[in-house]
Amino acid sequence: MLIDNWLFSKGISHAYEVSVFLRDNPDEEMYCDFFLPAYGAYIEYWGKEGDVAYDRRKQAKIDLYDKNGLKRIDLDDGHIKRLNDVLPKELARIRKAG
Fold first, then answer.
1. Which of 9, 43, 65, 77 could, after both became Cys, cross-link 34 (CB 3.0–4.6 A)?
2. What is the pTM (predicted TM-score) of this model?
């Protein structure tokens, strides 16, 4: 909710839990936490790190994002407390990457 509220407060159009199109894996189903259409980027909030099964799924998702050339912002619990610092920098990085 904090990420959603931050994006809304900054007027950044976003969608919650949408299907990610994987051009190299079109039959695989994967959902992102947030999609930012103006940036063509996805936000993933990794909130359960340290759980073996979760960490495996996290790495599998990261690999799919990378394999498909998709722009991604990764957030964890430490970032949530500093969204005003973290997200503007990450959005600038994504925009610069084209």
1. 43
2. 0.91
In this structure, what CATH number is given to the domain that contains residue 88? 3.40.960.10
What pLDDT score does 26 carry?
Answer: 83
Nearest Cα neighbor of 36 from 68, 73, 67 is 73
Task: Tell me how far apart the alpha carbons of residues 49 and 17 are, in angstroms, rounded to a whole number.
Answer: 19
Contact by Cβ (8 Å): 35, 42: yes
Q: Over the stretch 31-55, which tens digit does the pLDDT of each residue have?
A: 999 999 999 999 999 988 788 999 9
Where in the chain does DSSP place strands (E)?
Answer: 15-16, 34-36, 41-46, 71-76
Structurally, the chain folds into a number of domains equal to 1
Range of the domain at 14: 2-19+28-97
Q: Residue 35: what pLDDT? A: 98
- 63 close to 45: Cβ distance less than 8 angstroms: no
